[in-house]
Calponin-homology (CH) domain-containing protein (Clavelina lepadiformis), 226 residues
Amino acid sequence: MDYDSELSEDSLQSLFVWIDGIPLSRKKKNISRDFSDGLLVAEIIAHYFPRLVEIHNYVSASSINQKLNNWGTLNRKVLSKLHCTVPADIMRKIAECSPGIIEVFLLGLLRKIESRLMNNRQSTQGNTPESRPYYIARSSENDYAVKNPIPLAQLDLGSLDNQTRLILEEKEQALLASQETVQILQVKIRRLEHLLHLKDLRLQDMEQRLTRFDSVSSIQSSAQRR
């Protein structure tokens, strides 16, 4: 990731919409400060891949050292698995709340999450318990409430014949694929909806400016006639 790059307004707004759509332990007020200790980053990843993150490893922190401890653990145990590790100098900048850094990281994380969701749907590795993304999705008018089913591996299926077990496993894989597709589409829909809202606001602003310009022109024309 290029941490020296400056994100566009559309990219930032799309990022904020994505973050606001995830239930976090505290509301986003100042993104550089709120995400500086790594806790909310861990919560975001846990929202999509609960088996990948042990939230108790991360604590809300105000000291630089504790923030760096959180980020070190997150880097080693979680981000490395997403191929989204953070260099030591960038971790310190994030911990020190340097502006513009965490936004670049989060946008990169969003892309990694979307890529992993897509790969999980297409990969046979979805059979392993560690990589199964069971979701408890945010419920709203535009979202599907996805339950957290019990994996077949945790059930006693010894009394079933092989054919029945095979059918159940196929159904489970189809369910996982559907859940992952819903998650990906929900993220994309929220981003597109917000981009449309931004364009509407810009059109309204342009119309207001045009109205003010017409008013000023009319006043100037009247003054010149006098």
Observations:
- The longest helix spans residues 162-225.
- Confidence is low (pLDDT under 50) at residues 124-147.
- Residues 9-225 form a domain with the Actin-binding Protein, T-fimbrin; domain 1 fold (CATH 1.10.418.10).
